[in-house]
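Re: How this chain folds, sequence and tokenised backbone to follow
Notation: Tokens come from a learned vocabulary of local backbone shapes, not from coordinates.
Start of record: The labelled sequence and token lines come straight after this line.
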Amino acid sequence: MFVGTFGADYTELLYRDPEEIPLYQATNAGSSRGNLSNRLSYFYDLNGPSVTVETACSASLVALHLACQSLYTGDATQALVAGSNVILNPNFYVSFSAMG
């Protein structure tokens, strides 16, 4: 399982008000992007590599590259690749805009 991810908007929104943080937020895949591939591997009962990469805009492509490399080297006989990015907060992109 190879997952490319970018952004932490969901977690940032949940942590804005410490009084209202959901009870199980610490175990939520959104709270630690590194857990994305592990949660999927567990859900689908997959064995073998379980890797989450965060390389900004290229994350899904890097995940695909790592999956192909794993197949080529024999580390895995099958590979699933996923990508995830949800933009819920414009602040990050507003700062890019401010830089011109």
